[in-house]
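Workshop exercise sheet. Pairs work together: one partner reads the sequence aloud, the other fills in the structure field after running the prediction. Swap roles for the next sheet.
Pair: D.N. / O.F.
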Amino acid sequence: MSQHGSEADDVLLQAVRESGAHIGVVYLLSDTEQVLVMDVEVGLPAQLVKPWARIRLNAGSPVAAVARQRRLVWVPDHEGLARRFPATALATPYPFAMAAAPIMTGSRLRGVFVLIWPASHSCELAPHDREAITSACDRLAAVLQQPDEHPVSRAWEPRVLTLAPPRAPERHPESAVCGYLDRLHVGCLALDLEGRITFVSAAAAELFDGDVMGLLGRPLWEVAPWLKEPLFEDRCRGAVVSQQMTSCVARCPDGRMVEFRMYPDPSGISLRVASVEALAHMDEPAAGGEALSRAEVFYSFLPLAVALTRALNVPEIIDLVADHVMPVFKVKAMAILIAEGGKLRIIGSRGYDQDILEGLDGLPIVSGTPSGDVARTGEPAFFADVNELRQRYPDAEEHDRMAAWAFLPLEVYEEGVGACVLAFDEPHPFTVEERATFTALAGLVAHALDRALRYDSKDRLAHSLQKALLPRSLPEICGLDVAAWYVPATRGVGIGGDFYDLIRLTDTSAAAVIGDVQGHNMTAAALMGQVRTAIHANAVAGASPGDVLKHTNRLLIDVDTELFTSCLLIYIDLQLRTLRAASAGHPPPLLRPPNMPTEIIDVPAGLVLGVDPDAEYPTLQVPFPPGALLALYTDGLVETPGVDLDHAIANLACYMADSSQELQQLGRTLLDHAPHTSQRADDIALLLLEHRAKAV
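Structure field:
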């Protein structure tokens, strides 16, 4: 993209100069993936842009939101970022203002253009800034329409520009300036925006095991690879993005602890470097305290953010927030409220007494309470003490006996869903960083709760449908005791395809059926209903077990579901004391004759239903004497990763050996020995039938 790259570079540099931004970025949409790839940027060293080099379109970031919505997104400050894009705010805890706009050619999205200003920028996007962005997007679109543009590939590396030609390294002579710096016992270092060393004092050169002349012009991360660690890179990004002084402590290869203080401007970073021991003797605060505290908060929230993406229920989310947030910020009590029917309902809490919760639960959103106002307006509210609370809410009572509060809105895609209350038992002045962190946290919690509540709703619907599709009761047949169980999978939204049934054929005969439709969704459930109906209709019409499966197989071929079904059908004749069985790729039944070990009945297994229209299903006949017990089950009862299936079925047969157990007790015994893991993704269906007729 040499010619086009040059034109795009010129557009970017001009927009940055005209708008007064200190960082500019052009992202291009990949032709092969749903991802935005950084093409060119100015204002950040190449080492620091790696976390933002590729952004997926479904990410919770302003750049991805621009690509999805095809409109400009303006983020005036870090608190605004925390409210709308909480995950991004936690990952980039720096104060800045940002505007991003789509690059369009007609109706086609080609990329995203981004400008970033220091936090001192106006809270409004000025008309001339908006004009510069619009002009840049139009010019970039024209560049991208040119025919010799290269496609964006996975291995694409962004170009890094500078606003001015790099300054030549200063070959500073022995002078009063060098003597002055040496007498300070701290190192001085300057970097340009590409991370190259443009100035270095003797003390700093000693830290990097080099001489002054040998270090000039070299990238910092080349002369000190030990600084390629997350905290130092995070502080460098924070300095360049926010244009504010930042600091951190790092460990040298020789074990010394060294503090770096970074003073940025749009042309680069000046660093002051000193050992922690030396700083301890100076008349200034101890090194690294604020930085370590900020790092502690940041890294405490990393596992929380990851865990919240996996949480599937509300109690799990409450536990995660309580465990990760309350200890870090010394929060005494917490309550999470969801808006329902014009009221706020408490769905989880920690630290509050029950009588206090009863007073908070069910308050109208329009009641003029802090939590109600926050839920309605989407604006967080922080009160460092009781006096601050009463200044805004004169009638507020000390109903929760706390001393400071953070009331945080729970919003999902800018739609309010509730509020989170964090309470402290001592006055607590909230720093700017704390406010942004709490606001970002609330955004993560809101999205996790939205997923959990949707999951819970779908889960209830799925299992209600599952229950409706399974038989409400099994027919009573004289001489045959029956018990059945259905156990849903332990994890994963969906409805199982496992089913069972017992069909009365005559007063002394019945058809027992068990099956497993591939999949865990509504399609599988609908197919399960069709299979049950087809088997029932063909069985009562007098077809043999093999013919019933053959007819059902052809039905599935005709409906073209692309889902397969395993099935075991057994005709039980109590008068003839026989079983006739046919199988469509289903696990074999177990039979425990009276006073004998349990047997695995080797029913000839035809193909699963829905594969071959000409498949045949042979029938096997075996005795079923009085006192015999028959077990039909689905593979969820026996299948465990890494365990041989035949061995697992043999173990199940052993568990059936105790003939003293009643049917219900035996069923619980078998289920207790089923695979029990938090990740079990398959349902279980179990059908037990016992011949109770006395021998003649």
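Discussion prompt: DSSP finds 21 helices and 29 strands in the chain. What would you look at next?
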